[in-house]
User: What shape does this take?
Amino acid sequence: MRQSVTLSKVTKFMGLGMFGTLKDLFTGKLGKEDFKSFLRKTIVPIASILLFIGLWHMGAKALYEKEANFKIQKALTDQGQSAADAMKACIASGDISCKPNTLPSPAQVWDSYKSLLKDHNIIAADKAAFKEKTAALNEKRIEDGLEAITYTGRPSFVDQIFRSLKTVFAGFLLALIIAVPLGIFIGLSPTLKSSFNWFIQIFKPVSPVVWYLLVFMIVKTLLIDSNEDSSFTISFISVGLCSMWATLVNTAMGVSSVDKDYINVAKVLKLGSFQKIFKVVLPSSLPLIFTGLKITLSVAWMVLIAIELLAQSPGLGLFVWEEFQNGANDSNAKIIVAMFVIGIIGFLLDRLMLTIQNWVSFDKTEAI
Assistant: This one.
């Protein structure tokens, strides 16, 4: 019983209360009002997902038929009936050379997802074999003060996902380190607020492409004699600078709106500056700070794709661009797979921030 209550609290704490409701349904503990809530929060979303997949399938089929008919009609106009019949037979056979290359169906996207996982397993096996083959040689090279030989083959789709996550968390950490302390100082000082207001208003709406170009100008010079992976450095700094503004503004707002009675109590207790910040200001500002951090993480994940593309960093952004450039018969389906992966990871990052917020703050926020 205690374990059941704990599970319900944990799922609700993480903004995933739907799973606790499902458990109550199957154990017969769901009341009438709870059942209505279950229909609204669980059944309706599932029905909307099925509707979405159905509309997607019909839309993909209509586009496929439109392009197929166009190809057949063009062959008829340009080369005659025999060529049109040949084109029709070719399309019916599923031959890649003549198959319409338009919006993929849900089934095609699922097949591409499985293909990408299979490809990852092959590459992972190649990496393991390479590591085993070069283990003795690398050990000797390290003893001689030389760098180890590393695997230089192409990364798999899963490798690119982890590369993107590494980049976005590094950028988010940079944004946090810059924005939170600066926001606290701006919020505490009306003079600093006036001094930095122009800076925030001018640089906050700057495009991620421009931030990338600015960072590229600086980092390529600083690392001109270095063997460091500059694409990763440029990417995470660009992501951090582009996404930090929500945290900066929300932190400043949160600090400046702290109840004056709390500040007066801190003065009466003769708390030092740092004690006042950590014991009074920050706890009172946490809800707004975390709202800013959630927005920052979401923005960081969104702009990451464009920045990775420009920086040629081997993450999801580069994967999407290469598939678009590739133009293979399954490239469209792989792009849709990447789109869903990007969306799902974005959702999970939002749940992560909500969980941390509920853990450290008195203000318990329920997920939307």
